[in-house]
Amino acid sequence: MKFFNDLPPMDHFRSENMSLVQLIMPVESAQHAVSYLGELGLLQFKDLNGDKSPFQRTFVNQVKRCSEMSRKLRFFADQISKAGVTTYPNPDSEEVIDLEQLEIRLSEHEGELLEMNRNSEKLQQTYNELLEFKLVLLKAGRFLGSAQNHLVMAETELVENTYSIKNEDRLSLLEQSMQPEPSKKAGLRFISGIICKSKELIFERMLFRATRGNMFFNQAPAGEQVMDPVSGEMVHKTVFVVFFSGDQARSKILKICQAFGANCYPVPEENNKQKQLTHEVSLRLSELEATLDAGTCHRNKALASIGSQLWNWTIMVKKEKSVYDTLNMLNFDVTKKCLVGEGWCPTFAKPQIKEALHQATIHSNSQVGIIFHDMDSSESPPTYFRTNRFTNAFQEIVDAYGVARFQEANPAVYSVITFPFLFAVMFGDWGHGLCLLFGSLVLILREKKLGSQVLLFNFLRMPLEIIDYRFVKSFRVKCHLSQHVSTSYLYGLCGSDLKHAVSTSYLYGLDAQTAGLIKFRDPYPFGVDPKWRGSRSELPFLNSLKMKMSILLGVCQMNLGIILSYFDAKFHGNPLDIQYQFIPQIIFLNSLFGYLALLIVIKWCTGSQADLYHVMIYMFLDPFGNLGENQLFWGQKELQMLLLILAVVAVPWMLFPKPFILKKQHTERFQGRTYGFLGTSEMDLDHEPDSARHQHQEDFNFSEIFVHQMIHSIEFVLGAVSNTASYLRLWALSLAHSELSTVFYEKLLLLAWGYDSIIIRIAGLAVFAFATTFILLMMETLSAFLHALRLHWVEFMNKFYHGDGYKFKPFSFKALADEED
Questions:
Q1: Given 37, 287, 756, 779, which residue has the most CB atoms within 10 angstroms?
Q2: Nearest to 326 by CA among 25, 89, 101
Q3: pLDDT at 468 over 50
Q4: Is the pLDDT score of 459 beyond 70?
Q5: For the CA atoms of 713, 714, 718, 724, what is the dihedral angle to 10 degrees?
Q6: Maximum distance among all alpha carbons in the chain?
Q7: In 10 A of CB 162, how many CB atoms?
Q8: Going by C-beta distance under 8 Å and a sequence separation of 6 or more, which residues neighbour residue 182?
Q9: Where, if anywhere, are coiled coils annotated (predicted)?
């Protein structure tokens, strides 16, 4: 224990020290003070008006004004988006303007845009009506001319065949009614109009049923798309002409047209009038088109002018709204002249906050300064880690599991090393690793455009970043190569093939007795000897190697997690957790799986043929039995018996002492304090928050604590087995990646390359590239990422990490700007 006591407390791996502070601000300087604190972004305000609704707070009217201005700004953004106007916001050219002036200007711009929109809608509606009228004139005129010609020819033929009388004076009235001008003499009428093409069949069927077939329907495509007045989209329409007879049929047809949204237009029967009317409509259309173009150009210029300042205005309104929302979290003092606020801030930031409050007092010309002092609190402070672009992605991964408690050991510090390492172990191919490196370099070069809002983008770039941006480009390549490519190079795999770094240490046997690989020189210096590739024992050898290496890595990382629990307990001054949690856990884990890791290393170093499965199984089934040929070193049997006894003793050591010691401490602490205080009208303890009598004391429940300790002990004992087995995923995913790479390489690329046809070769190369990109580089990358995430969340962090804290969320304008971006 002296060794552990002499180790540093590792406080630089913990969250920042936080202070609960109180601010007493005069009303005239409160707004400036909150604005300066928002620019600083290092103070998290507490809501002192949580019992009030938003409409009962002091600055509700100011918040409503800002909300109304935000609505107008969203209206402008929507209009710019619909118009397709390209704007170039320039945050650096922010115009100096106060909130009242901005409110007036926004109202003026909104009124102008609404007026332009109304005029444009009226002109567009008139234009659409004239365009439809023109299409009806063109199409319906042909129907009428054709109908009249056919009717005149039919009447003439009927007269010639039926009557041979040449003298017109001898014709009867019925015969005279069949002379030209048939539509007027016979009572035949028509209605022309235009309807959406999708409604054409239903419209015709409804007309037929309403008139009982006493109509003639003719239609033709309009030939041009017409804007729909409701949706504003261009739709296909159909021009129709309905011939009928009688006023009753006319009334029915008009009602059906109105129900189906068909627009009816009058068309003269004479061709001359049709041509003249078409010419007049075309002239009006050209005039309206020029007017619409001029109006659109003027509107786009106005929108472009608004768009150039829209970003600045939006940020300004959001800042003001956030300031008033923060002021609504403060309380008035009894004099109603000062606002009182409370909040959390990092201890190191207190001088900066005091300087910002001093500047706010000067800027507001206040005669009274702002009071800033510390407060005592039994509440747990928020958790705040100072991160940079390199460590932020790892911190987000840890926070996705749970935010650390205040001053709890931060797993993200260790994940910076272990996460890329375990990812590379599962990926296991340095050739594909280079492809990921080039892909991440592309993301880095386009970082400003793509941003850093997606966790996957952060993950791909996180091994390539460091604190100082001046060294980013050089360090990114080095870090990614060392963490991913170098780790994968231990396997020697490059796109499914084992590559030579130096000369091999093996030769193939030449006869049946020496079939296989024969070692003829010292071991291969780095990674896996490529001579194993294609041999009979390749798969058993690599599986054994990767499986044992997975167990070694798992035992090391789980031991690291238990050791971190010791530093947590030491930092928080909890000796019970050290004596009755850390010590038995470290003994139990290493008595079983630490011993297994030791056997693996000894077997590798000595070249023994011992069966480790047999050793571990019979360590429990027959601890006194003879090891025989499975003995790796002298005294192994006695060591196994000792470790087994320690593992058995560690379980009750974890389970029983701690609950009983806590019960004893509780009894001693509150012995003789069974009587409480009697409240009187003169003394109300509920209104004395600083009184020692008001301190919150939780009831001690021995059964609950014992059950919790029992669950924790059982979870650790069972988890030691399951977590060690879970690390075998390092072997499984590496095996899957290598075998898939081999299958794609041999069965796609080499098979296609064996043909003389260039088409087959190109097709095989294309399929191989597709499989490599989407399966090996994308799906396998995602799979390795998720499994590395699970190993950190479950197998590593559950040994010491609680993750039940809450984040430090300061009032900051920078967060508003990032959100707007």
A1: 37
A2: 25
A3: no
A4: no
A5: -20
A6: 144
A7: 10
A8: 148, 151, 152, 155, 188
A9: 99-126
